[in-house]
Specification:
heterodimer; A: alpha+beta; Nonspecific Lipid-transfer Protein, Chain A; 5-stranded mixed β-sheet; 10 helices; B: alpha/beta; Aspartate Aminotransferase, domain 2; 2 domains; 7-stranded mixed β-sheet; 4-stranded mixed β-sheet; 13 strands
C-alpha cells in the first residue's frame, strides 16, 4: 500500500491545479521541493511552485525532507493518523502544515466523491481524471509488487498499453518481462488500447457506477489490439481498490 | 455491399445491463467475445436455421462460430428436432430416467472408439471436472498435469490464481506443461512421481489469441505409453473437437486411445447434453464418485443427441466439415493475398484459427473480421472458428465475396500502415 500511496496517489498532485483553483494558487507560489523517504519502500519528491506541481519518482535535491521509518508510517500519514519526521527544512514546517497540507486536503476532496459533490460537472471531471491517474499508476505498483498482481503481470506479453479518456488524460503502460512502467502521454505504438469515450465514462467506471463489461458493450470504453494484454491488466486493475480506499 | 445496422441490438443490450451482470456475460458477450468494435456485431439473435442466424435488427449471418461449436448439422436440423419433439411429448425431466439414456450410452459406446461406458451431464466443464475426480478416485493421487493455454471450462480448478474468485487452494494441485512438449511432460512426471492422477489435454492445441498447434509426430503415442507406465489417467478434453475431427473421437483421429474422453458441444447439435466416455478399468471409479445434477438425465436433450450422433455417423460429419473448412480457408487466404494481406490459418480445417501475419497488435485482423461481420459473415477475431455441415457451396462463395470486400475496405482504410508504423 505504501508504494501505491507514494508512487500513485502522491503523483496525482501533479494534475490537481488543472481541476482546483486553490491548488493552482498554491502552485503559483514560491517553489518548494518536498522529499518523501520511506524506509523499505523508496523515495519520491513533489516540487511545488512556478505555476505547476511536479512529481519526481526518486530522491535528490529538496528543500524539505520527510522521513518515514516504515511503510506503515507513510500509510498512517495518508490515513491522517500519523505525522512524518522532518529531517531537513525544519524552518519550513509552516509550509508543510499550511500550503502542502491544503493541497493534500484538496486532493482528498476531489478523490473522495459524494453524491452531492458529483452533481457538479466540473467536480465530476476532476474526480474522473484524478481517479484514472491514481488507478493506472496504482495498477503498475500492484502489478509489480502485489503477489496476485505479479502473477497477472507475468502473464502479460511485452508491449505498451494505451489507457486514455477522449478529451482527457492519456497514459502509456509499458510491459517488459512482467514488469510494468507507467508514463503520461499518448503511446506512439500501443500494442493494445483501452480508451474511454469521455471523462464522464471513465469516472463512472472508476467510481464503480458502471461495470467494465457493461462499459465495453455500451462502447463507453473501446478496446482494441492485443487483448490478452488488456485482459491481464484489467485483472490487476481489479486488485487496485484493495489499496485505494 | 450494404453494411448492417445494429440499433435494436444496442437498445436491448442497454436494457440487459440493468438486470444482468455485464448485459451478455461470458463467451457470447461483447467483452469475452472480443467484439471489436462492438457496434459491428450482433448482440442478440431472434432465430436460427441451417448455417444462419438472424439478429434483432433482422440481419442474416452465416455463422462460423456455430454457437461456439454445438451447431454441427445446421441449426434446427430436422432429424434432431423431430427426435427432441417426439421425446418432449413423452416426458423430459422425470423422477425415473428415460430409457433413452441407455440408448444414448449404447450409441456412444458403438460410436466412440475408446468408449466402454458413457456418463451424461450438461456442459463440457461438468465432464472435465468429473474426469479429474474419477482419475483421483482411481489413483488415490492429487496432482493434475495441464497444458498452458488449454481451456477446460470455468470451474475454479480450471482457472488461474490472480483471476477473480480463485484461491491458491483451487489451483494448488495443477502442474503445467507446453502442449506438444513430450520431454517437459516426462520431466514433470518424474518430478512428481507417484503423485499425478491425470494428464488432461485437448487433442490438439487450440488456445485463444494464438495459432493452433497440431500434435508433433509421435507425440500422442509417447504420451500414451508414459501415462500407462506411470499409472496416470490420460483424459482428453474433446469438448470442442469432438465429432469435428472424427466421429469416433479425436484420440482415434490422432492414433491413440484415451482413458477418458470429454464430449459436449456437437453431441446434441445445440441441445444441452454432455458426455464423459471411459475405458472399462475406470468404470468402477466413475461409479464411486458422487456426481449428478437436476437436469442431467432429462430425456429430450438425450433423445436429440441420439439423433445427432446417429446422423453424424451416417454422413461422416467430420469429413464433410473438414472438406468445407479446407475450401473456405483456401479461398480466404487467396482473397487476402489479392489485397496484400497474409492471412495465417492454423489448426484443423473443420475448426480453424486465423490471424493476420506481421501484426502483433491484432488490430488489422480485428478490423477485417469486423468488416466481414457487418456484411453478414460471423467470424470472431480471437478464437478458432467452426464449420458445420449445413454450409453450402453458395454460402462459401458468398463468404469469400464478403471477405474480399472486407479486405478491400481494410486495405483502403490505411489501418495496416498505421498499425505497423505507429500512430
Amino acid at each position: 500500500m505504501a508504494r501505491v500511496n507514494l508512487f500513485a496517489l502522491l503523483r496525482c498532485l501533479e494534475d490537481l491545479p488543472t481541476y482546483d483553483e486553490e491548488a493552482k494558487t498554491i502552485a503559483d507560489g514560491k517553489r518548494e521541493t518536498i522529499q518523501f523517504s520511506v524506509g523499505g519502500v523508496g523515495q519520491a519528491r513533489v516540487a511545488i511552485g512556478g505555476g505547476k506541481i511536479e512529481f519526481i519518482p526518486n530522491g535528490g535535491r529538496c528543500s524539505i525532507l520527510l522521513w518515514f521509518p516504515s511503510a506503515d508510517k507513510l500509510n498512517a500519514m495518508f490515513a491522517g493518523t500519523g505525522k512524518p519526521i522532518p529531517l531537513k527544512g525544519l524552518t519550513k514546517l509552516g509550509y508543510l502544515t499550511g500550503p502542502f497540507t491544503r493541497l493534500t486536503e484538496r486532493l482528498a476532496y476531489h478523490m473522495r466523491a459524494t453524491p452531492e459533490l458529483l452533481k457538479d460537472k466540473g467536480y465530476r471531471e476532476g474526480n474522473a481524471a484524478l481517479s484514472l491517474c491514481a488507478a493506472v499508476y496504482a495498477a503498475a505498483e500492484v502489478g509489480n509488487n502485489d503477489p496476485l498482481g505479479k502473477l497477472n503481470a507475468a502473464r502479460m506479453a511485452d508491449g505498451e498499453v494505451r489507457i486514455a479518456a477522449e478529451g482527457g488524460p492519456d497514459f502509456g503502460l509499458s510491459v517488459h518481462r512482467g514488469h510494468l512502467e507507467c508514463r503520461k502521454g499518448a503511446s506512439p505504438r500501443p500494442r493494445a488500447r483501452m480508451v474511454f469515450a469521455d471523462l464522464e465514462s471513465a469516472g463512472e467506471m472508476m467510481r464503480g457506477e458502471m461495470d467494465s463489461y457493461t462499459a465495453i458493450g455500451a462502447e463507453k470504453v473501446v478496446m482494441g489490439g492485443y487483448i490478452p494484454l488488456l485482459d491481464n491488466f484489467n485483472k490487476i486493475l481489479g486488485l487496485v481498490p484493495r489499496y485505494l480506499r | 455491399m450494404k453494411t448492417y445496422d445494429q440499433t435494436r441490438s444496442r437498445e436491448l443490450f442497454l436494457r440487459a445491463t440493468k438486470v444482468i451482470p455485464g448485459g451478455v456475460y461470458g463467451h457470447l458477450g461483447p467483452a469475452e467475445g472480443c467484439f471489436i468494435p462492438v457496434h459491428s456485431y450482433p448482440l442478440f439473435s431472434t432465430r436460427a436455421q441451417g448455417p444462419y442466424f438472424w439478429d434483432l435488427d433482422g440481419n442474416r449471418f452465416i455463422d462460423y462460430m456455430c454457437a461456439y461449436g454445438p451447431n454441427i448439422l445446421g441449426y434446427n436440423d430436422p432429424d434432431v428436432e423431430a427426435a427432441a419433439q417426439a421425446q418432449l411429448k413423452d416426458g423430459n425431466c422425470v423422477t425415473a430416467p428415460s430409457a433413452k439414456m441407455v440408448e444414448l450410452a449404447e450409441c456412444m459406446v458403438d460410436t466412440v472408439a475408446m468408449a466402454d461406458w458413457a456418463f451424461f451431464c450438461k456442459n463440457g466443464g461438468d465432464t472435465t471436472t468429473f474426469a479429474v475426480m474419477i482419475a483421483r478416485a482411481a489413483t488415490g493421487r492429487d496432482k493434475l498435469v495441464l497444458t498452458r493455454g488449454g481451456y477446460h471450462g470455468v470451474a475454479p480448478w480450471t482457472q488461474k490464481l490472480g483471476h477473480p474468485g480463485i484461491t491458491e487452494q483451487d489451483v494448488a494441485n495443477n502442474l503445467w506443461v507446453e502442449f506438444g512438449d513430450y520431454e517437459a511432460l516426462e520431466r514433470v512426471f518424474a518430478e512428481n512421481k507417484g503423485r499425478i492422477a491425470c494428464f488432461l489435454s485437448t487433442p490438439y492445441h487450440h488456445p485463444v489469441f494464438e495459432d493452433s498447434r497440431l500434435p508433433p509426430e509421435g507425440y500422442w503415442k509417447k504420451v500414451r505409453e508414459l501415462c500407462t507406465r506411470e499409472g496416470v489417467v490420460l483424459a482428453i478434453d474433446d469438448v470442442r473437437c469432438g465429432f469435428r475431427l472424427d466421429v469416433q473421437g479425436s484420440d482415434k483421429h490422432y492414433g491413440f486411445t484415451a482413458d477418458l474422453s470429454c464430449f459436449c458441444k456437437a453431441i446434441g447439435n445445440g441441445w444441452s447434453v454432455s458426455a464423459l466416455c471411459g475405458v472399462d478399468s475406470l468404470k468402477e471409479a466413475a461409479g464411486s464418485v458422487m456426481y449428478t445434477g437436476s437436469y442431467w438425465l432429462s430425456a429430450v436433450p438425450i433423445a436429440a443427441a441420439i439423433a445427432c450422433v446417429t446422423k453424424m455417423r451416417a454422413m461422416d460429419v467430420a469429413k464433410v466439415c473438414t472438406e468445407k473448412g479446407r475450401t473456405l480457408t483456401t479461398g480466404l487466404i487467396e482473397a487476402g493475398k489479392r489485397h496484400g494481406f497474409d492471412l495465417v490459418v492454423s489448426g484443423e480445417p473443420a475448426m480453424w484459427f486465423m490471424r493476420m501475419a506481421d501484426d502483433d497488435t491484432g488490430e488489422i485482423h480485428q478490423a477485417w473480421v469486423a468488416e466481414c461481420v457487418s456484411r453478414g459473415v460471423f467470424f470472431v477475431n480471437h478464437h478458432n472458428l467452426f464449420m458445420n455441415a449445413a454450409v453450402s457451396v453458395e454460402d462459401i462463395a458468398f463468404t469469400l465475396e464478403v471477405a474480399d470486400e472486407a479486405f478491400a475496405v481494410v486495405a483502403k482504410s490505411g489501418i495496416a500502415a498505421s498499425v505497423r508504423n505507429g500512430r
